[in-house]
Design brief:
- The structure is a homodimer.
- The first copy, chain A, has about 375 residues and is an alpha/beta fold.
- Helices cover about 45% and strands about 20% of the residues of chain A.
- In chain A, strand 5 (about 95-100), helix 3 and strand 6 form a beta-alpha-beta unit.
- The radius of gyration of chain A is 20 Å and the shape is globular.
């Protein structure tokens, strides 16, 4: 087992990463504050791995809530249904919530913990690669609104993150690839050495070799933990973690939630960011090619779907949270391992990156 | 104008108290971050005082939302409707929300600010005495759930609190008395000198003499600010502010939201807490009598409504947030100006405080 710490003063917490952690009560036990517990999982994860978690909670009265699976249930209505169950079970402010599933479960359940009686403790037990390297760390919780993704939410840090990589064995390959997109992201943003090691080992990562998987998750979480510790509420540096996300959110929203996985959209968004960075003269062609090659080797798309034209892209990006006072801010690359946030970019560079606008048909002669 | 500061490090903020503040742009101006603003008010306050606030916001694009008036609209559905309006208006993370109304408006609007894009700035402009001395200070925001009051919410501190006492001239007398209940509370909890001055001046306070009103609000806010600074998230001392609230919440919920005003229920709850403290031998009869007399002079009830029997009281109190790990905690008095939180009390003292249980009818002979 590897352990690292997210350093946030009184709200610091450990991330434990290993194989077989769901068979071992030790990592979880110190964080089970209060007697009554609530587990929020979903209909896919609970049948596969629920028995092992249940065994670890033996002796506690547990309210177990299985959500339907899918991003389309990441709504305020789902959160309200969880809060109702928690109130019916008489959970109090000293109770602990455990989020057991992928990023959607973690976001919804973490937000329920954030607003139940103005906030109770929660523990992340992420079961997908994407949630293990990204959403379970850093305290971002929330749900979607019909007008935009993650528009409703709170910053609420977990008390611990327990990552058992054995859960990845049951993960569909599409979701594995989506998770690898976020792993690649850390290399692109700030760790050229990690990027190079991913170039060397991506096939072994996709084949789930344990030592490679643990190392990739550890390095990703360390990267994220460092950024989060420096900028918990995303006023500055944390925004770098959104590389590929502004383009990606536009793809997710434009296609309808759940059609593209978040990580798939981020993978494509990173390729778009790399090309835009090249168009601005920031990223040299070799580096842009390396970025695209690794994204492609992970099984991700390099170009957005044809259904979303440039005008729709602009409209979807305008509602993104990275807009400040009406100005669109993008995360772009100066090199492999060197990202910057900027609102200063030529309109032509963005236009060159978005899908070509359908030419107006010539008039009839 | 009097000003005091709530000392919370990077989240510190000023409270400005005076007459005519809604005619003066100076107190508000430094806190209007971002270009776009949203004002959340209600159908009662906006027609009375809205023009003056609008004039202060001249030059900003303003989305103005008037909620229906009343505690029964303090729901997650109302929050969702606000979030939708904010998204439609393209408000971003740099926008500022202004809560303009009483405690219900402040709680709802503050919660909307807390969860809109994971939190945006907000300013409290409270227009009722209760919200001026209590709910607008300290960052507690939230809404009710059918199973309990304030069960959904967040801690989210305002950037400033602007209190114009002129708004009290249009306040119904019942609401004024409800606000005075919370003013008395500060004296009872920790300030015997303030309690004595209220005994001397309560009639002038109820008559809205400006210097008395400003002084009472200033001293109440100073008391609250000190407690909040010491214990922002209510892990300890802040719980003292709940004097009268556990009994009071039971009355509010038991009678149906909106039948009893919050402050009215707190006034009665404080009288119950005083009697229970006397029953435990903590409070001497003279002090108990002084507490009851001042509460009665404020026009508040000393006894709970006959509709709620002891069994229903216990049931309603069991779901209160002051329950920790299944144990009911109450705020009780050792003296005028000395409150304590305790889970250690004899069952008989509580039984003596609750309404007499209806005796079981004797069997037919």
């Amino acid at each position: 087992m590897k352990t690292l710490n997210v350093d946030l003063g009184a709200r610091s917490y450990p991330i434990h990463i290993g194989s077989g952690l769901l068979n071992d009560p030790a990592p979880l036990a110190p964080h089970l504050r209060g007697q009554r517990l609530v587990v929020v999982s979903n209909e896919t994860v609970a049948p596969l791995h629920g028995d092992r978690l249940r065994a670890l909670l033996d002796g506690h009265p547990v309210t177990w809530i299985d959500l339907p699976d899918g991003e389309r249930f990441k709504t305020l209505a789902t959160v309200e249904s969880i809060l109702t169950r928690m109130l019916e079970a008489r959970l109090d402010r000293g109770s602990t919530l455990i989020a057991f599933g992928g990023g959607v479960v973690g976001d919804i359940a973490g937000f329920a913990a954030a607003i139940y009686q103005r906030g109770i403790d929660f523990i992340q037990v992420p079961t997908t690669l994407l949630s293990q390297v990204d959403s379970s760390v850093g305290g971002k919780t929330g749900v979607n609104h019909p007008l935009g993704k993650n528009m409703i939410g709170a910053f609420h840090q977990p008390r611990a993150v327990i990552i058992d990589i054995d859960t990845l064995r049951t993960l569909p390959v599409r979701e594995l690839r989506a998770g690898v997109a976020e792993v690649i992201k850390y290399g692109l943003i700030q760790d050229p050495g990690f990027f190079a090691s991913l170039e060397a080992h991506i096939d072994r990562l996709l084949a789930l070799e344990p030592e490679i998987v643990i190392e990739a998750i550890h390095r990703s979480c360390a990267c994220k933990a460092e950024v989060v510790a420096a900028d918990e509420r995303e006023s500055g540096r944390r925004a770098l973690l959104n590389l590929g996300h502004t383009f990606g959110h536009a793809i997710e929203t434009g296609m309808g939630y759940g059609q593209w996985l978040h990580g798939e959209a981020v993978g494509t968004g990173m390729a778009m960011a790399a090309r835009m960075s090249e168009a601005m003269g920031w990223l040299d062609p070799t580096a842009r090619q390396r970025a695209e090659d690794l994204i492609a080797r992970a099984g991700l798309q390099l170009h957005p779907p044809a259904e979303i034209d440039a005008a729709r892209f602009r409209e979807l990006m305008a509602i993104d949270k990275k807009v400040m006072d009406g100005r669109l801010r993008l995360v772009l690359l100066k090199a492999i391992g060197a990202a910057v946030v900027t609102a200063e970019f030529p309109a032509e560079a963005l236009a060159a990156t978005l899908p070509a606008t359908t030419p107006v048909a010539a008039g009839a002669d």
